């Protein structure tokens, strides 16, 4: 029914064409990439193939240059090829969308591992964690992992709960992990072999 709805609203037949799923949200500020970077990645990716943006919005979402509400509004203005499903789309629907996708882009999160399980070509973007610890056994996933470790001498810092004040260079004012401030749309598209 989701594909039918998209076809009725956008005339995009996702059953017969390639599409990407992008999962930009995280519930921890140090595992969140600035929303402006996500907008650039999604806009460029949508020039090559349709993009479905997924993620659950809760009451306490981190600010990453803008509110998640502003981010969602800006997504909806990116054109017909961007399908914004941010909100409370059931996990089983999100998993089904990922399973049929030709590519996936996400952070170090559960949905990245769903894409890995379905063997979907995936770009994963890493901040406080070393990707080798979590996906080092999967050479295909590692070949498309983005980790700008050079941005922070303390990386990896393995921030889970709370704030690792003694490790992050910005101290308690650090809103986004330094490693997550610089991934680009060109970098993502080149790893997916999608020329715009």
Task: Give the topology.
Elements lengths: L1 H9 L9 E4 L11 H14 L2 E3 L14 H9 L5 E3 L6 H10 L2 E5 L2 H8 L3 E6 L4 H5 L3 H5 L1 E3 L37 H8 L4
Parallel strand pairs: 1-2, 1-4, 2-3, 4-5, 5-6
Helix pairs in contact: 2-3, 2-8
Task: Give structural notes.
This protein has a six-stranded parallel sheet, with helices on both faces. The protein is 35% helix and 12% strand. The chain is of the alpha/beta class. The chain is globular, with a radius of gyration of 16 Å. Helix 2 packs parallel to helix 3 and helix 2 packs across helix 8. It contains eight helices and six strands, in the order αβαβαβαβαβααβα. The model has no long low-confidence stretch (mean pLDDT 87). Helix 2 links the parallel strand 1 and strand 2.
């Amino acid at each position: 029914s989701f594909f039918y709805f998209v076809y009725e609203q956008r005339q995009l037949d996702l059953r017969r064409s390639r599409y990407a799923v992008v999962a930009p949200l995280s519930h921890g500020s140090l595992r969140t990439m600035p929303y402006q970077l996500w907008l650039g990645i999604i806009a460029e990716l949508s020039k090559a193939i349709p993009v479905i943006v997924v993620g659950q919005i809760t009451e306490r979402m981190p600010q990453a240059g803008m509110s998640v509400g502003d981010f969602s509004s800006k997504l909806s203005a990116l054109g017909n090829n961007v399908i914004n499903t941010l909100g409370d789309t059931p996990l089983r629907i999100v998993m089904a969308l990922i399973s049929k996708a030709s590519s996936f882009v996400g952070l170090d999160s559960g949905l990245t591992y769903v894409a890995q399980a379905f063997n979907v070509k995936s770009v994963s973007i890493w901040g406080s964690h070393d990707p080798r610890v979590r996906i080092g056994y999967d050479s295909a996933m590692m070949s498309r992992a983005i980790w700008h470790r050079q941005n922070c001498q303390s990386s990896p810092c393995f921030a889970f709960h709370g704030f690792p004040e003694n490790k992050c260079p910005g101290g308690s004012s650090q809103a986004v992990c330094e490693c997550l401030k610089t991934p680009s749309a060109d970098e993502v598209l080149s790893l997916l072999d999608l020329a715009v």
